[in-house]
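Let's practice the habit of predicting before peeking. Look at the sequence and jot down your guess about where helices and strands might fall. Then scroll down.
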Amino acid sequence: MAKDKNNASYQSGAYTFGAILLAVVVLANMALVAFLSRTNRNISTKTSSTMSAVNRMNTELLIVNGNILRIVSQMSSDTDAIVVDTQLAFTNIYNAMADFEEIDGKSDDVERRYNSAKAFIKLYEDKLNSALQKFKDQEAKAAGTGLEAFGGDYRNLYVQDLYPLQVTASEMLKATIDIANKDAAAQGARIVKVFILVEALMLIFLILGEIAIMFIAKMAKKARIDLEEREKSLREVDAKLKSTRQKASDLALTNILTGMKNRYALDEDISGRLESDRFNIAVFDMDNFRSINDTYGYDFGDEYLIAVADRLKNEFSGSAEIYNITGNEFCFVFNKEISESQAMGIVQNIHAVMCSPYDVLNLTVQLPTSGSVYHYLPGDCLNVNSLLVKLDTALRNAKLNGGNMINTVVDI
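Done guessing? Here is the structure:
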């Protein structure tokens, strides 16, 4: 009887100890869950505020861009209203900036990327205000001639000076969001690691203290299963985020009209090759393409460009990486195995294809094309911009000499 009482007392003490241990574990888990919930809520709130502020900036930039398009496309004659609307958009941008800058705990990478975007927005605003002021001054001198303030070629000013600044600022803002999301994911991962560590310590304590208590063992097993499911959910969320970021990156590097890589993709692809590689590169631009838009309209011009781009991809994508770097300007970076003489032969074929007649919307159109080719040697250029300047200079000289010809870049 005494032995049974001792066993019963021992079992009672063991279950009491187990109950106390379970209570401690439960309370510790509740505290940990509360801490994690509060931390995750703070991270979520900060990330949401960051995305909201940056998205507001981007939205207002798009409004500004739309206003400028209304001027350069002569869709509106109410210039004063457009200027007021543009100023209001920049006011909203700076309000969003103020909200963004009040957010605490941003990483240095987020701050750097945001400051870059802020600088581009300021430069964009200054250039835009200067152009609009000239526009208004010109309008005041002689009604209907305001577009002469853009140098007589307002479309090129927009494409070459204003639009790239707006696009760059938007890309910097998108990069700010990407980095903020990455920081939030990293913080979440650290929290998960802390959670796993604490859970593991408690599990070890339970195993060492209550190895004979099946209930605690079952709870530990359940905790492990829950943890695995949580990790699986986190992996799925991370995979979706990576996929979304990849789609955004692909869109930023693609010409939406032709589906070809754009100027930014070219910079990304060959910047690292300038110091060490030799390669052949060429650019082509249809002579007087503007006449197509002026005669048949921009929709017709777009269809013409799509037809040319599709044929170029079908016939030359095996020999070169093709980029649609601006409107009707195409760049070809030939494969490494293509020699200089082979490249020149392909360049002639490209010229012939682009000069060929095309059936577009039941009309046959044909334009002469000028081009330039560069047999690039390692170290010739400091960056992609200087490389393109050489190519465009040779291309421009070809057009000045009557067009419909190909010039070779000669380094002196």
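How did you do? The mean pLDDT is 81.
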